[in-house]
């Protein structure tokens, strides 16, 4: 009797374990067509920095029962929250909805479960106990307030409100990451990073120290690295410009100091010349010849030559050319 009871408990336990392993389940409204293939595909989703918001890697497929029931085992999921996509194979047995390809994004870990309920279209409604997914649904409701805006769409207002919601209301890093990717899709992330670099730097450090798959925030890391590089190049250009201006100013100051010093030296030297020598020097600078100078001062040419020799000696020069250069 005890052995039978123990065997019954073992079988019951195995049965419960088998049920517990199906963490994704639900129903699809299908037309009855036994000849058509009926499959549900499960894909792992990654955020990326390409033109598309997400990239997909199919990890499993399952058949749909005749009653429209499907499920996925927990072996396809990890213990960490991740973003997944469930998709109905586009076949003829979908409901009357003209769009034959139906899919849904959701967040799940192997420790949680999600159930897609019966509805007029595939994956229309579902229940889940995953906290991250629930927070994501709240984010979607918030974002839906702006979806109807078109010509009067105020990007600054949207960015301000969304950024405030992300910082103040979102608690789960993965959901923050998804919301930031939405900003990137709307071409608003670069602007916000430039204005709030410290926030995103801190967020990236938090992401790196968390258990989130690095592939999910690689796009943010790459974007920050690119912005840091652009800022460094801009700072380098500004630094080089300022250095150039500083060198120009210093060079100008040195030139002015030397010029002033030279003038002072010339003034000292000029003051050592006699009145007659200064007169002859000025006449030389005006282009007069020795004979013209002699006639103007009523002295002999030899006297002029003697004064010129004394001028050259005092000014430490050897020719009229040097005198002209020195007095430019």
From TrEMBL:
Residues 266-328 form the HTH luxR-type domain. It comes from the Bacteria. The keyword Transcription applies. The chain crosses the membrane at residues 236-258. Keywords: DNA-binding, Membrane, Transcription, Transcription regulation, Transmembrane, Transmembrane helix. It holds the Pfam family GerE. This is HTH luxR-type domain-containing protein. It comes from Aquimarina litoralis.
